[in-house]
Automatic annotation (TrEMBL):
InterPro entries: SET_dom, SET_dom_sf. The keyword S-adenosyl-L-methionine applies. Pfam families: SET. This is Histone-lysine N-methyltransferase SET5. It comes from the Eukaryota. It catalyses: L-lysyl-[histone] + S-adenosyl-L-methionine = N(6)-methyl-L-lysyl-[histone] + S-adenosyl-L-homocysteine + H(+). Residues 107-421 form the SET domain. Residues 51-83 are annotated as: Disordered.
């Protein structure tokens, strides 16, 4: 039976199609829309009303400068918009990830661009039942909790998936070829760490780039996991730029600068009440950290690491092309460092790093999905509804692969929601943490109810 989509559904679908296929005409886009949504009845005239204009550089995916819904940010992509949080919150740059095949990863889910400045989110295509696995996802950028460093450096844990070994350096595990500080479950994990998630990127291997030790020491001393993610993002881009494919490089650029929610870290910190008292020290700390990153991943000719770094780059490709001024500014300027630091703070999942699809999930203090790190041997339930997996223990800890599970029945059209903070916190604590860490106040049903109770208690 054919149904007419709502204006909001059609608007979201049109934005996604234009982002994914910037050079196609309206006829082909309408045909693709009907393939994606066979139950929809839609005329070309109505579809055209919601279809964004093609960008001026539509031959290159995700690199136009058009607008989304008339409210685009003008920051270099036709799928980028600004998220203006309520109550005077921070304004985040965000957009649709045109390189993700969401139907392949999560068949019952689709991305939606919401109105009123909310930005993107994930909604359900088909009914989900309690205990149902919605999707699983490996980290796009793998990071580890700083407390795990002792296990990683002693080869008691896989540097890629964070599986705890029964003994250090177990049989069949694979060490890093160049350094004595990384061990992997097998060659697949080793390959993922080097080429996929940047869990142990060649440019950040102490055996290949000795200056890395200085930044690793800083991360450990400051217990700064966000900094760990920042240098892995830059290393991932630099590696693809020097040794990889242009398509992989463009995917990184699009995901970082056009898709994942991003707010400059200095802008975030300025929201804090104590900023006037800590600003000088914080800025000095950031500038010193930025200089360390430059020495590791883009040393100048006057730096001691310049020649060793050039030899490392030339070990895989003899003819190097110098960075352009635009690339220097985009990836190695101080302001870009603050942008990346802010991006990581908004998107990093505490148990594993940055995840491309997971980063589309919005917050609620009463979430309808669980995000879990389950053991390698876990299998989805065969009958539904089902109980949620039990909590992990020290003897049965999970890996950094995310499993997204429905906490209750979720109906088509409902948004998938997770909690960004500990749900056990009371109303005022959740409110303060969300505002400080993510730049917004929550207005979910639970918060509205507890706000009334909180106001009464203060009266």
């Amino acid at each position: 039976m054919s149904v007419a989509p709502s204006d909001e559904e059609l608007n979201s679908a049109a934005i996604i199609l234009r982002s994914a296929h910037p050079s196609l005409g309206i006829g082909k886009l309408l045909a693709q829309l009907k393939l994606d949504n066979p139950e929809w009845s839609i005329s070309e005239k109505r579809f055209k009303r919601f279809l964004p204009r093609p960008s001026s550089s539509s031959s290159e995916k995700g690199q136009g400068d058009g607008e989304v819904n008339g409210g685009g940010s003008g920051s270099g992509s036709s799928n980028v918009t600004e998220v203006n949080q309520k109550d005077g919150g921070l304004i985040a740059q965000t957009g649709i990830d045109t390189f993700l095949d969401i139907k392949q990863i999560a068949p019952k889910v689709k991305v939606k661009m919401f109105k009123d400045g909310k930005g993107k989110g994930l909604v359900v295509r088909e009914k989900l039942q309690m205990g149902e696995m919605i999707w699983q996802e490996d980290p796009w950028i793998a990071t580890n909790d700083i407390s795990l460093t002792q296990y990683l450096t002693s080869r008691e844990m896989c540097s890629q998936c964070l599986t705890l070994f029964p003994q250090p350096n177990p049989p069949l595990s694979v060490p890093c070829t160049f350094c004595g500080e990384a061990q992997f479950c097998n060659r697949l994990c080793y390959s993922k760490a080097v080429k996929g998630s940047s869990g142990h990127h060649d440019l950040l291997c102490p055996g290949q780039n000795k200056e890395v030790k200085s930044i690793l020491k800083l991360i450990q001393s400051k217990q700064n996991r966000d900094l760990q993610a920042v240098i892995k993002i830059i290393a991932k881009w630099r590696g693809e730029r020097e040794w990889g494919s242009s398509s992989a490089r463009k995917e990184i650029e699009d995901r970082i600068w056009n898709s994942m929610a991003r707010v400059n870290q200095r802008t975030k910190e300025e929201e804090r009440r104590e900023w006037p008292f800590i600003a000088k020290d914080r800025l000095e700390e950031w500038r010193l950290t930025h200089l360390l990153i430059l020495n590791v991943l883009n040393p100048s000719p006057s730096d001691d690491n310049y020649k060793p770094f050039q030899r490392l780059l030339q070990s895989k490709k003899s003819r190097l092309i110098p960075l352009t001024k635009e690339e220097e500014e985009r990836w190695f300027s101080f302001e870009s460092f603050l942008e990346l630091l802010g991006l990581v703070g908004l998107n990093q999942e505490s148990s594993g790093g940055l995840y491309a699809l997971h980063s589309h999930l919005n917050h609620s203090c009463d979430p309808n999905v669980q995000v879990r790190n389950l053991p390698k041997g876990w299998t989805p339930p065969t009958t539904l509804p089902a109980e949620l997996p039990p909590p992990m223990t020290a003897q049965n800890r999970g890996t950094n692969k995310l499993t997204i599970i429905a906490k209750k029945t979720i109906h088509p059209g409902d948004e998938l929601l997770v909690s960004y903070v500990d749900q056990r916190l009371d109303y005022s604590e959740r409110r303060e943490r969300l505002r400080e860490q993510y730049g917004f106040y929550c207005h979910c049903t639970r918060c509205k109810k507890e706000q009334v109770e909180y106001s009464k208690s203060k009266a």
